[in-house]
Amino acid sequence: MAAVTRGSFTFMRRLLLAHRYKRCCSRVQTGRPDYTRHPHTVFIPQLCSSRFFHTSYVTSGPIVPFKLSDIGEGIMEVTVKEWYVKEGDKVSQFDSICEVQSDKASVTITSRYDGVIKKLYYEVDATALVGTPLVDIETEPGLEVAHEEDVVETPAMSNDEHTHQEIKGHKTQATPAVRRLAMENNIKLSEVVGTGRDGRILKEDILNFLAKQTGAILPPTPFHEIQPPPPAVSAPSSASMPKMKPSPSVPLPVISRPVFTGKDSTEPLKGFHKAMVKTMTAALKIPHFGYKDEVDLTRLVQLRKELKGLSEGRGVKLSYMPFFIKAASLGLLHFPILNASVDEAVQNITYKASHNIGLAMDTSQGLLVPNVKNVQLLSVFEIAVELNRMQILGATGQLGTADLTGGTFTLSNIGSIGGTYAKPVILPPEVAIGALGKIQVLPRFNSRDEVVKAHVMNVSWSADHRIIDGATMARFSNLWRDYLENPASMVLDLK
């Protein structure tokens, strides 16, 4: 009996030694000993060299095709903008694979598996179809791979990854950021009702769930932390400052120098330009009703002048747009049909509870229309914070799908470029849009028939004439104008 015990102990010790030096031998190109076939072989560390091996082989895991999953919004193809990996690179879960550009936004594809990249299926600027492989990944040997949707990460503040979790027999969809937020607040995802596509749980759902539990009113979207103003530095006296000649101001070039090639060039429409073709083709099927008016912003100009320094002291640039957007939201409370949508057959109308007001932006990538979510719950300052965030992301091409989708009403600030009037085109499925002209200093008569200097802005509205009549559009415009001409009146209706 003792001999049997000693034999078993010796056998187990050999197996443990083999496991201990497994990594040392795995670096040798010719392979490593097979201890399952030769369990009684004694392993000696000093003999860890390829020339002493009698049996060698290389094990490899299964090669999994990493497919492009459904990004949503009916997108069927994307353009590969940049690869973050190459063949032979090791990747882990949630590592960035590549950046693709859809009709809606630029998104970053992240890995679902740990492994080695074996093949890239597309070149840069190539078109990838939803459901086709992007890369092949060699996973670890013996690892069971679940063929699920690939992970899609949207830049900036919205991570739209397609991740899943089995909870109480049904599949709950949420992003890693949402799961982390739920975990930090001890919230079970199974108790939260998702309002996203296919029941996906969004950050807003977690925040609304928290608000119901605590009775607090939380902002629907996260904001950048407000940076305190830098400490004031006492200016040196004029006597101590050396006298220097003022340097001549050098004007910066506004546009790049044009290059004339003398040859015609043809290139396919893709990305945001292709999206514009699709959107505008659908938009021009809508019978547009146009309405124009002018707004005296003299009082608002003075109010902004008083608040500008306070806002910048909090680290946020305050423009006129937050006032325009908030006034529009207050007007939509009285005219909810302008914050609605209709189906393609124009048989049903849906009144939107959230005022997701979009702002048309001219970026290097083309025309983008991100929207500020739930304006009806935000203050003017909170709207300014969101606009600052979106303008930074728009300038760097990092606006995500969540920022660019879900809009219910749109304003286009064409005046920032230099126009006074415009004919804005409705962005379906929305039913109304406004275009804001530049603010001009013009002579006007006051209540005493005196000619005074006034800050005047023209506004142009377009509405879906199938469901919105001219009188409704005019009354909304008058209310919006009254809020801006008398900004103190907005205080009475702010919540």
Automatic annotation (TrEMBL):
Q: Ranges of Low complexity compositional bias?
A: 234-247
Q: Where in the cell is it found?
A: Mitochondrion matrix
Single GO cellular component annotation?
Answer: cytosol
Q: What is its EC number?
A: 2.3.1.-
Is Mitochondrion there in the keyword field? yes
Which InterPro entries does the UniProt record give?
Answer: 2-oxoA_DH_lipoyl-BS, 2-oxoacid_DH_actylTfrase, 2-oxoacid_DH_E2_comp, Biotin_lipoyl, CAT-like_dom_sf, E3-bd_dom_sf, PSBD, Single_hybrid_motif
Q: Which reaction does it catalyse?
A: N(6)-[(R)-dihydrolipoyl]-L-lysyl-[protein] + 2-methylpropanoyl-CoA = N(6)-[(R)-S(8)-2-methylpropanoyldihydrolipoyl]-L-lysyl-[protein] + CoA
Q: Where is the Peripheral subunit-binding (PSBD) domain?
A: 173-210
Among the GO molecular function terms of this UniProt record, one is: acetyltransferase activity
Renumbered residue ranges of the record's region Disordered: 225-248
Ranges of residues in domain Lipoyl-binding: 63-138
Co-factor requirement: (R)-lipoate
Identify the enzyme class. Answer: transferase
Predominant cellular place of this UniProt entry's protein: mitochondrion
Keyword terms of this UniProt record: Acetylation, Acyltransferase, Lipoyl, Mitochondrion, Phosphoprotein, Transferase, Transit peptide
Instruction: Tell me its family.
Output: Belongs to the 2-oxoacid dehydrogenase family.
- What does the function comment of this entry state? The branched-chain alpha-keto dehydrogenase complex catalyzes the overall conversion of alpha-keto acids to acyl-CoA and CO(2). It contains multiple copies of three enzymatic components: branched-chain alpha-keto acid decarboxylase (E1), lipoamide acyltransferase (E2) and lipoamide dehydrogenase (E3). Within this complex, the catalytic function of this enzyme is to accept, and to transfer to coenzyme A, acyl groups that are generated by the branched-chain alpha-keto acid decarboxylase component.
What's the protein here called?
A: Dihydrolipoamide acetyltransferase component of pyruvate dehydrogenase complex
Taxonomy of the source species: Eukaryota, Metazoa, Chordata, Craniata, Vertebrata
